[in-house]
Design a protein that fits this description.
single chain, mainly alpha, 7 helices, about 0% strand, about 220 residues
């Protein structure tokens, strides 16, 4: 998989043979999005055991498969760059501060797909233009309590909660991806981030429709 995206070294950080710094947006995005994606995979596997609805199960499978593959690419780049996958001294999302507000501007410009809903007021400690709700690690991520609720819900209740949690998760993911598309200096990673944002924006529209069919709506 990594060989297919070998631009991670050839065109990294503005020139052949150069790799991103450990605190760069390129490395920070790879580390944080790998963690962010892991939770999406976890939630998707949970809901597949809590409902027999084929539309939900197919969506969950697509999300789990896509994000597991992308996570592998991100972690593979960190390996190729010789950079750590965990940096205890840097809080999550700190890489977004590198843009002096540029990422925050992108996070507020997602109105065309509705992804901006719920991101107003995301100005705080987690990075440029992003805050994290209490109990969550990064923007859009579910808390342990929310994951526990998903793990005990059944049928329609599980479907609605999954769609609401994944909607929040995608909104945070789109914000992060747009931040990398703006701030990262590795072209192949920028392209991946832009593709993530576009795909998740499309899924946000789909999930809003699926919630509506179940008499529910995204959380405010």
């Amino acid at each position: 998989m990594i060989a297919a995206v070998s631009g991670g070294t050839a065109d990294a950080a503005d020139g052949p043979g150069r790799v991103p710094a450990v605190s760069s947006p390129d490395a920070g995005f790879a580390r944080d999005m790998a963690v962010h994606h892991q939770q999406a995979v976890e939630m998707s596997f949970i809901v597949r055991d809590r409902t027999q609805d084929e539309a939900i199960r197919n969506l969950a499978y697509d999300i789990a498969n896509t994000q597991a593959n992308q996570r592998g690419m991100l972690l593979g780049w960190l390996d190729l760059w010789g950079l750590p996958k965990v940096t205890p001294g840097d809080p999550p999302m700190s890489w977004m501060n590198a843009g002096d507000g540029a990422a925050a501007h992108d996070m507020g410009s997602m109105g065309d797909t509705g992804a901006a809903q719920g991101t107003e007021g995301m100005a705080g400690h987690s990075g440029a233009g992003a805050t994290t709700k209490p109990g969550a690690l990064m923007p859009g991520m579910a808390t342990k309590e929310e994951l526990a609720r998903l793990g005990t819900a059944q049928g329609r209740d599980a479907e609605v909660l999954y769609l609401q949690l994944m909607t929040d998760h995608h909104k945070g993911g789109v914000a992060m991806a747009l931040g990398c598309a703006k701030l990262c200096r590795t072209p192949v990673e920028q392209r991946l981030a832009q593709g993530m944002a576009e795909a998740q924006q499309s899924e946000l529209t789909l999930m809003a429709d699926m919630l509506g069919k179940r008499g529910a709506a995204p959380r405010p």
